[in-house]
Amino acid sequence: MPEYTYKARNLTGEVVSGSMSANTERDVVNWLSGQSLFPVKVETERQKQAITIGGRVNDQKIAVFYEQLSSLISNGVPLLRSLRILQEQTRIPAFKAALEDVISHVEDGDGLSDSFARHPKIFSEMAVNMSRAGAEGGFLEDALQRVATFTEQQAELKSRTIGALIYPAVLATIGTIVVTVLLVFFVPKFGELFDQLRNMGELPAVTDWLLWFSGSLRSYGLIFLAILAALYFVIRVQLSTEKGRRFADGIKIKIPLFGPIFLNLAVGRFCRVLGTLLRNGVPILKALEISREASGNRILSDAIAEAAENITSGESLSQPLSKSGHFPRNVTEMISVAEESNTLDDVLINISEGLEKQTVRRLDLMVKLLEPLMLMIMAAIVLVVVVALLLPIMKMGSVME
Questions:
Q1: In what order do the strands lie in the sheet with 15-21?
Q2: How far apart are CA 118 and CA 128, in angstroms?
């Protein structure tokens, strides 16, 4: 019988922690409820000692694994045999080693969810909890199929977002290279040619500025790159801290134009994960704990954590989310109606689908506007360089006449 550790809140809101032996996590939750305690976190000692073999595995490949495992089990193939078949088929060393470890622990009597939990970089916490709920409720294949669907949808959304930004990124990179080459190698060749006009006080201001900027870039370019590299390093270090990530997440959802896109993506992820977990029988407090991390935004995560505390006091989910000011009004209204009609899981998934479609449309529109804007900026910079070089040449012609 596995050993479970738990954190819970009593009727006065104080945190109570401890450990106990039980057959399943649900038994621990039921025991806590019988003691008038509201469970916040329940996990096995094996989960706490999770190991990592290799690196991460592509989301698309993980989705295929969940779908194939679900199909094998639903067709009557025993769990261990199904895992061995899939482990023999995989060609990814890290995934193969992880599945070998999962098979070993399932053979020793551990549950599939506990075995998954040993590899948090490969099997998400949502997959762990949904497989646990499916195993306890007798619908493991259905739970795995839903995990596969969710993972595939998230991977597709991520792929579409990255794909939409590739072309603008390529344009920006090429434009930067072209302008740098012009300023560093092409413009300085005209310096000596224009010295006569400068001495006569006839050199146009735009040409003088261009030559100064080009000379500064040639003389101090490496120093400038070193400063940028140091600044990048400092920012990376700051963003690795909790305070830095919280600050960046706050800025991310407030910046003009792109802020609503980042916000909708985070809210959509939260709603989809929470809805999927609730649909598969995961307790709401555990589901909120998982989904708040899945949102990927510390500001939203804090609002969700506060909502979870209010739920332990008997309040609804929609009220604290609405008070936070970070969730769209229509989302909190739909959650409120869903709580009253007891259809929260379905409504949350519908909300996530709507937000994802809206985000993709807005992202496509932004990219369509960004492409010509970047081309115009590049053309304007090149035009300034050309005009700055042509003006003194024309003046020299008039002086010689």
A1: 15-21, 3-9, 38-44
A2: 10
